[in-house]
């Protein structure tokens, strides 16, 4: 069994399924694929959508990259070993309609080996391997039922593995996508986010701890986290598409669009100032266009823009400043309604 | 004689004069002043212009800030002493018309003292003091005569002090405003940029060297750099306003505006990813709205946008990728023409 192959197949299948679902809900635009190779090793498939009925700009990218562990990586990333390998999917969608939320998701696997691959394709022993990922929603207007549906979908995915996951990963998400320079305003209303997952919770008392002492690398642990990524990754379709269906025909005004463009400015601020993945890519000769594909199509920066107290715009901003526990209030009726909707999409 | 007072008076006078000149050339919008105080010490006057005939968004800010040297400053900025004081002017102007260039300028003084101010207003001994500044131009379309005029104005200012300054500070500018992640594409066509200027060139063999061994702090050195900042600071009006006058009535198309918005994206990328001042402000509890005032009003990010080979847009991009020595080709006739124009504005 080859863990990398299982992961890679999943990532490419996820890319295909998500692109199909997005094209279907858009009804007009289709993805254009830009395949690229990286001189240092590996490459990717950048798939871009633009000027659709629903999506103004978006991308669903996969990449497989690898290389030698450099001194800079050893120092800055505190990485050991001789070679590294990484593969993941990353998507960002910026809809036209301000009532349809922007969404981001990312699932990735990282592996380190202690000796360089030999000429015959044989690779060195795996000395470390971890998984990360998550999905977060960035609405411009707050519909509580959408927020609850989105979070409930990921809670269900998490609960199928470990009931401790959703509260933990929800909190990690709330604490990651933060514009710290704006009084800790969140980019959106969160979702789940996890990183450095090495072992299955049942596999070791150290389970899931980042930076724990060296742990023997077991394929069984990898399979656990691959299954989890599958549940969450395919879950994206259930989490996001029904919200798009529900909001895509909502009438909007110039003022709604203006607010969307202002909020997109916050998205740019987070991605360029704080996002580890973006900054790592920009500073390590990553493929710029694939990295910056996440930036919104049209953005507005105004001096000291403040929404009117109590307005719908203000309510969204408040939800970003004060992350909420969306699922404490959910009713069974709401849950059933959303399940029905998800199944018919 | 109080160096800080001389500097502060200059900075406020410069703010007034530049704002007046900009309002005059705009002909419609006036500056709105937002005065603010900083809880840790000091404050500023943020002056904002928007929706004018010429300027879509802009600001001319001054601030005086001070405080105790923190452990973080000692480690990260390699600063010594007990208290610090800084005062400067910073401006960015984003015109509506894509044929009018965006411009940025900044002049600042920094001082460190070795003991905290006592209750009676007396301050500790000055242990270090330095000056920095510069002005750079970001056109969307390249007019060589504008580039030459802009650079010639600053060369003249520099030459009045030291003929080594212009080539040195021009190069520093070309090497500072760089989107390293885009194959070292410059933000614009440069200007001058200098930092850590402590001593007058005639004053010491160590003149102008950053991080040299401790140098006795002399007011004469400060006065030299204040005079230089005055020459460059007031020179902004001669350097920029004639270009605005010349281009502000140029007819433009939707395509020209689209290109301007794409290029503004590069401006955002530089300011949020690379600019030391912006990042320092964002990470040290600076006044966010004053710092991010530099961001353009409406910005466009498109996947892998490339101007057509040989087009006017392409020529501008080439000038950003390959900084040019604008003044090697300047003719006397051009110089006279610009001098005449500057004097009549």
Write the SSE topology.
2 copies of one chain form a homodimer.
Chain A: H1 3-26, E1 32-37, E2 42-50, E3 55-68, H2 71-76, E4 83-95, E5 102-113, E6 126-138, H3 144-159, H4 165-176, E7 178-179, E8 185-186, E9 190-197, H5 219-247, H6 254-274, H7 276-283, H8 288-292, E10 298-300, H9 312-321, H10 332-344
Keywords, separated by commas or semicolons:
345 residues, two-stranded antiparallel sheet, alpha+beta, homodimer, 10 helices
**Unreliable stretches covering 5 or more consecutive residues of chain A:** none
**Quaternary assembly:** homodimer
Helix residue percentage of chain A: 40-55%
Structural class of chain A: alpha+beta
Tally of contiguous helical segments of chain A: 10
Task: Provide a compact summary of the structure.
The structure is a homodimer of 345-residue chains. The first copy, chain A, is of the alpha+beta class.
Description:
The structure is a homodimer of 345-residue chains. Chain A has 345 residues and is of the alpha+beta class. Chain A is built from ten helices and ten strands. Chain A has helices at residues 3-26, 71-76, 144-159, 165-176, 219-247, 254-274, 276-283, 288-292, 312-321, 332-344; strands at 32-37, 42-50, 55-68, 83-95, 102-113, 126-138, 178-179, 185-186, 190-197, 298-300. In chain A, the strands form two sheets. A seven-stranded antiparallel sheet of chain A has the order 1-2-3-4-5-6-9. In chain A, a hairpin with a 6-residue loop joins strand 4 and strand 5. Chain A starts with a helix and ends with a helix. Chains A and B meet through helix 6, helix 7, helix 8 and strand 10 of A and helix 6, helix 7, helix 8 and strand 10 of B.
């Amino acid at each position: 069994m080859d863990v990398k192959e299982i992961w890679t197949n999943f990532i490419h299948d996820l890319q295909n399924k998500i692109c199909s679902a997005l094209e279907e809900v858009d009804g007009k635009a289709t993805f254009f694929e830009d395949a690229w190779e990286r001189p240092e090793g590996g490459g990717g498939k950048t798939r871009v959508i633009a000027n659709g009925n629903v999506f103004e700009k978006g991308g669903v990218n996969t990449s497989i990259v690898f290389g030698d562990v450099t001194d800079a990586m050893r120092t800055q990333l505190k990485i050991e070993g001789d070679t590294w390998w990484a593969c993941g999917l990353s998507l960002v969608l910026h809809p036209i309609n301000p009532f349809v939320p922007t969404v981001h998701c990312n699932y990735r696997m990282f592996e380190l080996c202690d000796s360089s691959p030999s000429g015959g394709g044989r690779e060195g022993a795996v000395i470390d391997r971890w998984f990360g990922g998550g999905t977060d929603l960035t609405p411009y207007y707050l519909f509580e039922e959408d927020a609850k549906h989105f979070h409930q979908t990921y809670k269900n995915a998490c609960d199928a593995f470990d009931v401790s996951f959703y509260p933990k990963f929800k909190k990690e998400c709330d604490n990651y996508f933060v514009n710290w320079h704006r009084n800790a305003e969140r980019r959106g209303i969160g979702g789940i986010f996890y990183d450095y997952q090495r072992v299955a919770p049942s596999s070791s008392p150290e389970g899931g701890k980042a930076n724990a002492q060296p742990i023997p690398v077991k394929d069984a642990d990898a399979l656990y986290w691959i299954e989890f990524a599958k549940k969450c990754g395919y879950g994206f379709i259930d989490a996001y598409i029904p919200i798009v269906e529900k909001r895509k025909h909502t009438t909007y005004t110039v003022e709604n669009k203006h607010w969307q463009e202002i909020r997109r400015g916050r998205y740019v601020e987070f991605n360029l100032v704080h996002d580890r993945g973006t900054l790592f890519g920009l500073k390590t000769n990553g493929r710029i266009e694939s990295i910056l594909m996440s930036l919104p199509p049209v953005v507005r920066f105004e001096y000291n823009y403040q929404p009117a107290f109590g307005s719908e715009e203000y309510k969204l901003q408040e939800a970003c400043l004060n992350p909420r526990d969306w699922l404490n209030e959910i009713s069974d009726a709401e849950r059933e309604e959303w399940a029905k909707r998800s199944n018919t999409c």
